[in-house]
Amino acid sequence: MSNSIKNKEVFGESFLLESAKAENLYFGYAKDMPVIDYHNHLEPDVIAANQHFRSPTAIWLDGDHYKWRAMRNFGIDEHLISGKAADQEKFRKWAEVVPYTLRNPLFHWTHLELKNPFGINEYLSPQNADEVYHKMDESLQTTGFLPQSIIENFKVEALCTTDDPADDLAHHIALKSSGFATAVLPAFRPDSYITITNPENYLSGIKKLEKVCGFSITSVSDLLNALQSRVNYFVEAGAKVADHGFEYFPDTTKWNTTLEKEFSEFLQGNLTSFSDPEALCGHMLKELCRMYAEKGWVQQFHVGATRNNNSEMLGKIGINAGYDAIGETYYAQKLSMLLDELNNEGKLAKTIIYNLNPAFNEVLASLAGNFNQSGIRSKIQWGAAWWFLDQLDGMTKQMNTLSNIGLISTFVGMLTDSRSLLSFSRHDYFRRLLCSLFGSEMERGLLPDDEQWVGKIIQDICYHNTKKYFEI
């Protein structure tokens, strides 16, 4: 790679802002709005402990399956990706890949994360890898780069982590009483208790739930009682959100007394497997949705990822390692049936649907509009572009489809869905794109030439809609 990369300055202040109107909207209305990140996978213990990161690799590369996938595409040995190589050696390998990520969102994200919060304004390459590493490392040793300081730097008003129902939430509770200005709220993620993929692992999870609940779980009724007790506990800790991830949406109509008896036998160890995991998942999901409605929570459904496709690497390094893909299972009818039943009962909670297969964009956007309610703006939301789609093209398609079929003005906007504290820069990425879309249409005469009017809509999407929808 040419030495000409070194010291070239990265994206300027008008990055992505392709018109004067876009610049006015961004700098005048979007840029300084607080962030509410209502779905991420940040570790609450890291935030609560508020200790220095051991190295730039720890904060930037560890567990980042987006970067890992790119490194594998480039032919980097796994030892230098998820293995036990030294931190600086891994960083050098990432720097080797970065110049070849042109047109991949990682090229933008990488340099935005270097620019804010580290103040590094040059392109990363093998020629400056060590220099950049040391600059980042020096910053990480200061109090301005402790986890809580990084969160404050990004103007994060509130964030929702993703938590197992059996978690004690001690770190959330400690943060609430610590005086930390950002609200760090738990989110209820019960997937491992309603979805059986591996019977042995499932039963191990049930044992963990029994321990925190203080009673045996030998029936579906026991399991629902246990999860209800944990929902109540999460409410006390400030939770406002439940989250589910499905490869395909389960059929919620299949449960019957025969399956209920079989499930009891399975829980009691009399059977080594359960014959209809989809029926169990559908039944449990419906009952949980009723609990969420009673608590006034927002329920989030992430649908369409095929996970852990590489069984060899699953065995070697485990889940969430970058071996997932977009699925192709159609699920709108099953989802519609559940929403309709809950709506008829008066127990349909606010719902956000995240779709991973763009072929279903219009399908899901139109479905969301069927179950709205007086007094709540877009009660059922078609959520932000997710995972493989949270890049310029995917976000543009999502916002255009939402604009055409629903109301983008009531959209709750962006989230990080990330394990990295540096990923809050994606909110800025989203805001720049949002302003560019609106600004371009103002320039073309498709939207009113009224920055105050349009700017108010921009601020609603960036912040106010989210604050009101989640009641934060």
What's the N-to-C terminus distance?
48 Å
| Annotated CATH homologous superfamily of the largest domain | Metal-dependent hydrolases
Give the overall shape: globular
User: How would you sum up the major sheet?
Assistant: 5 strands, parallel
Average pLDDT, all residues: 96
**Which class of the largest domain in CATH terms?**
Alpha Beta
Number of helical segments? 20
Walk across the major sheet and give the strand order.
4-5-6-9-10
Q: Based on helices, strands and strand pairing, what is the structural class?
A: alpha/beta
CATH architecture of the largest domain: Alpha-Beta Barrel
Uncertain ranges = none
Which radius of gyration do the C-alpha atoms yield? Answer: 23 Å
Total of domains: 2
> What is the CATH third-level topology name of the largest domain?
TIM Barrel
The run of helices and strands is HEHHHHHHHEHEEHHHEHHEEHEHEHEHHH
What percent strand? 5-15%
Structure description:
The mean pLDDT is 96. This protein has two domains: 13-51 and 146-469, Metal-dependent hydrolases (TIM Barrel, Alpha-Beta Barrel), CATH 3.20.20; 53-145, uronate isomerase, domain 2, chain A (Orthogonal Bundle). It is built from 20 helices and ten strands. A five-stranded parallel sheet has the order 4-5-6-9-10, with helices on one face. A three-stranded parallel sheet has the order 1-2-3. It has a two-stranded antiparallel ribbon with strand order 7-8. It has 472 residues and is of the alpha/beta class.
